[in-house]
Amino acid sequence: MSRSTRLARWLVPVVLLVAWLGIGGTLGPYAGKLGEVATNDQAAFLPQNAESTKVIDAQRAFRQDETLPAIVVWTTADGGEVTARQRESATRALASLEDLSGTVGPASAAVPSKDGQALQGVAQLRPDLDDQLPTVLRKIGEAAEQVPGTTVRIAGPAANQADLSDAFAGIDGLLLGVALATVLIILLLVYRSVILPLVIIIGAVLALGLACGVVYALAERDIARVDGQVQGILSILVIGAATDYALLLTARFREELERRQDRVTAMRAALRESAGTIVASAATVALGLIALLLSDLTNNRALGPVGAIGIVCAVLSSLTFLPAVLVLLGRGAYWPARPKPAGDVEKNSGGRGVWPRVAALVDRAPRKVWAITLTGLIACAAFAPTLDSKGVPLDELFVNDAPSVAAQAALSEHFPGGSGNPAVVIADADKVDQVTSAAGGTDGVVTALPVTESGQPGVGAPRTADGKVRINATLEAPADSDAAKETVARLREAVHAVPGADALVGGYTAQQYDTQRTSESDRMLIVPVVLAIILVILMGLLRSLLMPVLLVATVALNFLATLGISALVFQGVLGFSGTDASVPLYGFVFLVALGVDYNIFLMSRVREESLKHGTREGVLRGLTATGGVITSAGVVLAATFAALGVIPLAFLVQIAFIVAVGVLLDTLVVRSLLVPALVLDIGPTAWWPGALSRKVGYDGPGTRTADRAGSAVRR
Questions:
Q1: Which of helix, strand or coil describes residue 92?
Q2: Most buried among 262, 385, 523, 573, by the most CB within 10 A?
Q3: How many Å apart are CA 150 and CA 158, to the nearest integer?
Q4: Torsional class of 116: left (φ above 0), alpha (ψ -120 to 50), beta (otherwise)
Q5: CA quadruple 451, 456, 458, 460: dihedral positive or negative?
Q6: Are 59 and 53 in contact (CB under 8 A)?
Q7: Is the CB of residue 591 less than 8 Å from the CB of residue 659?
Q8: Mean pLDDT for the chain overall
Q9: Residue 115: predicted pLDDT
């Protein structure tokens, strides 16, 4: 080998390493800056074409539209009735807020509850306070505490948003730290190596830095939208995916090092055999996420491209940075358990080890294995319909004791459930009386009053803007309840019936109602699209029609089984009465796309071995060779998604549980037992109509079929 050739062999890895270190140094800080361009304003993530969204647009003509209500609640310390002095003191406290920076206009007067044991008042805040919001709420609380003999709480959208921002406050450091520490510990236990886990972690962090840098640039230019949920999922997705792809490549590189002395040649072989599998696996996840662009929910549309960018960055790191470092380190990367040249690596590993024993179990009784596992999965899936995805009640939105939740509970105890969070009706000004009457006569509506020029309900002439009026309808049921959503449906029917009014109903409850209905229609559209995408990719990779259908069916069953388990745990153990409307769709996209990943890892190796040895031997060799690395990858991914549970929000806790349990179920049951057993029982026909369906294969325990084609099958 000439000197120039040797130089070129080492120059490429060095250049790639330097380039990635430059990317890390330049873009790495953006992993901590992404929160600067994130918004947790839930109004920005509503269905684009829903009636409640149109109400927000129509409200822009009203001054009250550009506010964030903070509802101050006073309850008497001894449970007695509010005195006149306390009421006057509370009204003065609210009036003093007019000069407070961050408020908009005068606050309302203090209004007593019907039972006489509480007071409430509403201060309107600017919606763009962001980091200043907690300070403004604290000052409101200090002013309200001047009322003697009372306990003060702050409820309403402003308090909810402050608690939401507080919940996401640790997403940059805490979540990332927990995820990386978890992955590092697992890798140390799996590889019993010091250097390799650190290399894999560094590669994942560099991929995350690149992804965050790209997303930051897009969000800053309003091309992409990011909130705390998308930000957290991006971190977990990139770390988990980059680690999975790295595990596959490092395992293959180790095999090649046992065959070859030269590390560069070994890496070329490892890339040749695994790059296609990694790219195909990443494509299923990325394209599955891109399918979320079909959603009418803006937060779903936001996650799609952001998540796909993260997956692309994970692949780039795994196929460039990682190979460069492994070539430079060689066998030293696996120290102290360095790979040694093996005699005959084509031999089956015998009966030693866990995965040879699993392969032997499947080989002895494939039909019994798939029948038992299939029955278990179907039994779990039977509980899937019991998972309620109509939304999370406000008192379950946070998994800890958030101040806004306690305040809302106090408010609901003494005032109508919808107090401070009314349904908003926008209608033509000349029909204000008819619409107000129709709204007030709707079952479940306590009061319906136009917003007036004075700002006080029912006092003065209705305020008009662009020929429209705004009517606030206070609901009897809590704003986040199913009863309130049913009331909104009746309210819409009532006001829509007023001829010439062009009435629209919005507000918090209407937004929840529209989000739930949109999520249901999104699932009907996106689920088939994702399945079709995955089928096409699998057909191209495995050169078969029957095998992709089989794999997608098993992964879909795994998803339903996971939902069944989740329904039992959420309601019976964790105490959730329901899930966020988007949880099933997120769970489907992640589980199906990621679940197919592991089947791609397995079946691409099975196909490779089947081309040499036939279907039966190919399944056994593929399962034995990939069992350890795929199981490790599944455990890592489950652990990284479980790290989302450190953010005290029901939505993220539910997603963390569904993905973690689903990935483990898929890795340990579907990929390890169900799929191999089905393929063994079906035999070479599983590869129909590909050439492998005519190759020597398995036709029952311990037997082989003849080669129907009578000749070797070419790749």
A1: helix
A2: 523
A3: 21
A4: left
A5: negative
A6: no
A7: yes
A8: 83
A9: 84
Tens of pLDDT, residue by residue over 163-210, are: 877 776 655 666 777 778 888 888 887 777 888 888 999 999 999 999
Q: Which two tokens stand for residue 205?
A: 């962090």
Share of the chain above pLDDT 70, in %: 89
Read off the pLDDT band of 498 (50, 70, 90). very high
Rounded-to-10 torsion of CA 360, 362, 367, 372: 130
* 569 CB neighbour count, 10 Å cutoff: 15
Which amino acid makes up residue 213?
Answer: G
Nearest Cα to 681, choosing from 321, 373, 266, 324? 373
Residue 340: pLDDT band by 50, 70, 90 thresholds?
A: low
Higher per-residue confidence, 538 vs 228: 538
Could you write out the DSSP letters of every residue in 436-447? HHHHHTSTTEEE
Q: What is the pLDDT of residues 580-611, one digit of tens each?
A: 878 888 888 888 877 777 888 888 888 888 88
Structure tokens at 436: 């107000």
Rounded to an integer, the average pLDDT of 506-531 is 87
Q: How far apart are CA 457 and CA 449, in angstroms?
A: 6
What is the 3-state composition of the chain as percent helix, strand, coil, each rounded to the nearest 5?
Answer: 65, 10, 25
**181 to 174, 176, 627: CA distances (angstroms):** 11, 8, 24
pLDDT of residue 642: 85
Distance (Å, rounded) from C-alpha 99 to C-alpha 110? 18
Q: What is the DSSP string of 191-232?
A: H--SHHHHHHHHHHHHHHHHHHHHHHHHHHTTSS---HHHHH
Mean pLDDT highest for which of 34-48, 258-272, 452-466? 258-272
Q: Is 379 helix (H, G, I), strand (E, B) or coil?
A: helix
Q: How far apart are CA 203 and CA 366, in angstroms?
A: 39
Strands of the sheet containing 150-155, edge to edge, are 111-112, 118-125, 68-76, 150-155
Specify whether the CB–CB gap between 450 and 462 falls below 8 A: yes
pLDDT of 241-287, one tens digit each?
Answer: 898 899 889 888 888 888 878 888 889 999 988 888 899 889 988 99
Three-state SS for 132? helix
In the block, which residue shows the tokens 């600017």? Answer: 126
Q: Which of 557, 526, 518 is nearest to 675 (CA)?
A: 557
417: nearest Cα among 482, 332, 464:
482
As beta bridge partners, residue 154 has: 72
How remote is the C-alpha of 402 from its chain's centroid?
22
Rg (CA), the chain: 30
Q: Which two tokens stand for residue 156?
A: 């309403």
What's the Cα-to-Cα distance from 50 to each of 226, 332, 433, 515, 654, rounded to whole Å?
21, 59, 25, 8, 26
Distances in Å between the alpha carbon of 361 and those of 365, 370, 680? 7, 11, 12
d(CA 597, CA 620): 19
C-alpha distances in Å from residue 540, one per residue of 316, 534, 537, 547, 713: 22, 10, 5, 11, 17
By the 8 A CB rule, do 45 and 508 touch?
Answer: no
| In contact, 588 and 288? CB cutoff 8 Å | no
pLDDT greater than 70 at residue 2: no
Question: Is 598 in contact with 634 (CB distance < 8 Å)?
Answer: yes
CB of 337 closer than 8 Å to CB of 254: no
